[in-house]
Amino acid sequence: MAGEVNVTIVGNLADDPELRYTQGGIAVVSVRVGSTPRTFNRTTNAWEDGETVWVRCTAWREVAENVAQSLTKGSRVVVTGRLKAPSAYQSAQGEARASLELDIDEIGPSLRYATAAVTRRAREAGAGAGSGAAVAGDPWGDAPKAAAVKPAADDAWANPGVNSTGDDTPF
Question: Distance (Å, rounded) from C-alpha 13 to C-alpha 35?
Fold first, then answer.
Protein backbone atom coordinates (compact mmCIF):
# COMPACT_ATOMS: atom_id res chain seq x y z
CA MET A 1 0.00 0.00 0.00
CA ALA A 2 1.30 3.49 -0.74
CA GLY A 3 2.52 5.59 2.15
CA GLU A 4 3.55 2.70 4.38
CA VAL A 5 6.91 2.83 6.11
CA ASN A 6 8.91 -0.34 5.41
CA VAL A 7 11.82 -1.05 7.74
CA THR A 8 14.35 -3.80 8.43
CA ILE A 9 15.43 -4.52 11.98
CA VAL A 10 18.31 -6.73 13.11
CA GLY A 11 18.20 -7.73 16.75
CA ASN A 12 17.55 -10.47 19.29
CA LEU A 13 14.25 -11.99 20.40
CA ALA A 14 13.44 -10.94 23.96
CA ASP A 15 11.08 -13.87 24.59
CA ASP A 16 9.94 -17.08 22.94
CA PRO A 17 7.42 -16.39 20.16
CA GLU A 18 3.85 -16.19 21.47
CA LEU A 19 1.54 -18.14 19.11
CA ARG A 20 -2.23 -17.66 19.37
CA TYR A 21 -5.23 -18.35 17.14
CA THR A 22 -8.14 -16.03 16.38
CA GLN A 23 -11.72 -17.25 16.76
CA GLY A 24 -11.68 -17.91 13.02
CA GLY A 25 -8.66 -20.22 13.40
CA ILE A 26 -6.07 -17.83 11.92
CA ALA A 27 -2.61 -18.12 13.50
CA VAL A 28 -0.95 -14.97 14.85
CA VAL A 29 2.44 -14.72 16.56
CA SER A 30 3.97 -11.88 18.55
CA VAL A 31 7.67 -11.40 19.20
CA ARG A 32 9.66 -8.60 20.80
CA VAL A 33 12.90 -7.71 19.04
CA GLY A 34 15.57 -5.70 20.82
CA SER A 35 18.24 -3.89 18.85
CA THR A 36 21.15 -2.20 20.60
CA PRO A 37 23.42 0.09 18.56
CA ARG A 38 27.17 -0.12 19.25
CA THR A 39 29.71 2.58 18.55
CA PHE A 40 33.46 2.62 18.87
CA ASN A 41 34.80 5.30 21.23
CA ARG A 42 38.21 6.31 19.87
CA THR A 43 39.26 8.08 23.06
CA THR A 44 38.83 4.96 25.22
CA ASN A 45 39.45 2.42 22.42
CA ALA A 46 36.35 0.50 23.50
CA TRP A 47 32.94 -0.39 22.10
CA GLU A 48 30.00 1.27 23.84
CA ASP A 49 26.39 0.11 23.77
CA GLY A 50 23.66 2.63 23.04
CA GLU A 51 20.06 2.55 24.22
CA THR A 52 18.14 -0.59 23.22
CA VAL A 53 15.18 -0.09 20.90
CA TRP A 54 12.34 -2.56 21.49
CA VAL A 55 9.90 -3.37 18.69
CA ARG A 56 6.77 -5.53 19.02
CA CYS A 57 6.46 -7.58 15.81
CA THR A 58 3.38 -9.48 14.63
CA ALA A 59 3.05 -12.14 11.91
CA TRP A 60 -0.05 -13.89 10.64
CA ARG A 61 -1.08 -17.25 9.17
CA GLU A 62 1.61 -19.65 7.92
CA VAL A 63 4.43 -17.21 8.72
CA ALA A 64 3.22 -17.13 12.33
CA GLU A 65 3.37 -20.91 12.63
CA ASN A 66 6.82 -21.02 11.02
CA VAL A 67 8.15 -18.39 13.45
CA ALA A 68 6.77 -20.29 16.45
CA GLN A 69 8.40 -23.55 15.26
CA SER A 70 11.74 -22.05 14.24
CA LEU A 71 12.78 -19.24 16.59
CA THR A 72 13.42 -19.05 20.33
CA LYS A 73 14.35 -16.47 22.93
CA GLY A 74 17.76 -14.96 22.24
CA SER A 75 17.75 -15.81 18.52
CA ARG A 76 19.35 -13.12 16.38
CA VAL A 77 16.87 -12.27 13.62
CA VAL A 78 16.43 -10.05 10.58
CA VAL A 79 12.87 -8.70 10.36
CA THR A 80 11.36 -6.73 7.48
CA GLY A 81 7.91 -5.25 7.66
CA ARG A 82 5.57 -2.30 7.81
CA LEU A 83 5.95 0.08 10.73
CA LYS A 84 2.73 1.09 12.50
CA ALA A 85 2.14 4.43 14.14
CA PRO A 86 3.54 4.39 17.70
CA SER A 87 1.10 3.67 20.52
CA ALA A 88 1.33 6.02 23.50
CA TYR A 89 0.73 4.59 26.96
CA GLN A 90 1.58 5.20 30.61
CA SER A 91 3.82 2.83 32.57
CA ALA A 92 2.99 1.50 36.03
CA GLN A 93 5.29 4.21 37.47
CA GLY A 94 3.33 6.92 35.63
CA GLU A 95 5.94 7.56 32.92
CA ALA A 96 4.72 8.42 29.43
CA ARG A 97 5.94 5.85 26.90
CA ALA A 98 5.45 4.86 23.29
CA SER A 99 5.77 1.44 21.72
CA LEU A 100 6.91 0.64 18.20
CA GLU A 101 4.98 -2.05 16.34
CA LEU A 102 5.81 -3.83 13.10
CA ASP A 103 3.68 -6.04 10.84
CA ILE A 104 6.12 -8.71 9.66
CA ASP A 105 6.52 -9.33 5.94
CA GLU A 106 9.69 -11.46 6.24
CA ILE A 107 11.63 -12.82 9.21
CA GLY A 108 14.55 -15.19 9.55
CA PRO A 109 17.59 -16.02 11.62
CA SER A 110 20.66 -13.85 11.15
CA LEU A 111 23.55 -15.88 9.81
CA ARG A 112 26.22 -13.46 10.99
CA TYR A 113 27.07 -15.47 14.12
CA ALA A 114 25.14 -18.71 13.51
CA THR A 115 24.16 -21.29 10.92
CA ALA A 116 20.68 -22.49 10.03
CA ALA A 117 19.18 -25.47 8.26
CA VAL A 118 16.17 -24.60 6.11
CA THR A 119 13.30 -27.06 5.79
CA ARG A 120 10.68 -26.18 3.20
CA ARG A 121 7.12 -26.77 4.38
CA ALA A 122 4.64 -28.40 2.03
CA ARG A 123 1.50 -26.37 1.46
CA GLU A 124 -1.73 -27.78 2.79
CA ALA A 125 -4.41 -29.00 0.38
CA GLY A 126 -6.44 -26.09 -0.91
CA ALA A 127 -3.86 -23.53 0.18
CA GLY A 128 -2.86 -20.82 -2.22
CA ALA A 129 -4.63 -19.14 -5.11
CA GLY A 130 -4.04 -21.92 -7.66
CA SER A 131 -6.40 -24.68 -8.68
CA GLY A 132 -7.16 -27.54 -6.35
CA ALA A 133 -5.18 -30.06 -8.42
CA ALA A 134 -1.66 -30.16 -7.03
CA VAL A 135 1.17 -32.05 -8.66
CA ALA A 136 2.53 -34.73 -6.33
CA GLY A 137 5.80 -33.63 -4.78
CA ASP A 138 5.28 -29.97 -5.74
CA PRO A 139 4.62 -27.99 -2.52
CA TRP A 140 3.16 -25.06 -4.47
CA GLY A 141 0.90 -27.15 -6.67
CA ASP A 142 0.85 -24.59 -9.48
CA ALA A 143 4.14 -25.25 -11.28
CA PRO A 144 3.90 -27.58 -14.27
CA LYS A 145 6.26 -30.54 -14.26
CA ALA A 146 9.14 -30.15 -16.68
CA ALA A 147 9.14 -32.68 -19.49
CA ALA A 148 12.16 -34.94 -19.39
CA VAL A 149 14.17 -34.32 -22.56
CA LYS A 150 16.98 -36.73 -23.32
CA PRO A 151 19.90 -34.93 -24.98
CA ALA A 152 21.51 -36.39 -28.05
CA ALA A 153 24.47 -38.60 -27.12
CA ASP A 154 26.83 -36.99 -29.64
CA ASP A 155 25.96 -33.37 -28.80
CA ALA A 156 29.02 -31.93 -26.99
CA TRP A 157 27.10 -28.84 -25.84
CA ALA A 158 24.34 -30.91 -24.23
CA ASN A 159 26.87 -33.26 -22.62
CA PRO A 160 29.84 -31.08 -21.67
CA GLY A 161 31.46 -33.76 -19.51
CA VAL A 162 31.44 -36.38 -22.27
CA ASN A 163 34.23 -36.49 -24.85
CA SER A 164 33.09 -36.01 -28.42
CA THR A 165 33.87 -38.56 -31.12
CA GLY A 166 36.89 -36.67 -32.42
CA ASP A 167 39.44 -34.04 -31.50
CA ASP A 168 37.54 -31.36 -33.42
CA THR A 169 35.90 -28.49 -31.57
CA PRO A 170 32.14 -28.96 -31.14
CA PHE A 171 31.29 -25.94 -33.35
Answer: 9
